[in-house]
Structure formats: C-alpha cells, structure tokens
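Tip: read the tokens left to right.
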C-alpha cells in the first residue's frame, strides 16, 4: 500500500511539473512581438539614453586629452584639433 502512495505522489508531481512547463500555443517564439505601447516615461528614457551617450563621449574626450597631456609629442591628436587655429591671430 505504501508503494502505491509513493508511486501516486511521484506521478502527481511529475504531471504537475510537466503541465507547468509546457508551452501553450499563445507564447510562440517565432511570432513577431508587437511594438511596446508608448508610456509616460518614453521622453525620460530617451533623455537618459542621450545623457549616457554624451557622458561616454565626454569620458572618451577626457581620456584623449589626458593622453595628449601625458605624451605631448604623441601624434594621436584627432584631426581638426589644431591648438593654433583658435588663437585669434587670423
């Protein structure tokens, strides 16, 4: 009798686990997902993304300037950064 109860318990747990993990037809991976609906946070999210991009550019520029200061004879200066072009003598 005890073996029947154990077998029934194992079968119930297995069936429950299989039912929970099965994929219903509504969650198909090959179907294209609709675009997300606009929310009130879209403008703020765009502003945050833009700020992150500006921050990355600023950090890269600071890194380049620090490298130029550390190695003044290095020819790694980006094109268009002629320090004498803006001296006002033109």
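Filled-in amino acids:
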């Amino acid at each position: 009798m005890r073996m029947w109860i154990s077998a029934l318990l194992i079968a119930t747990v297995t069936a429950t686990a299989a039912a929970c993990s099965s994929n219903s037809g509504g969650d198909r991976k090959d179907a294209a997902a609709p675009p997300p609906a606009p929310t009130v946070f879209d403008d703020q999210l765009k502003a945050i993304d833009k700020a992150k991009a500006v921050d990355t550019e600023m950090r890269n520029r600071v890194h380049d300037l620090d490298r130029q200061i550390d190695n003044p004879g290095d020819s790694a200066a980006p094109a268009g950064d002629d320090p004498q072009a803006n001296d006002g003598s033109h």
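The chain is about 55% helix and 0% strand. Residues 39-75 form one domain.
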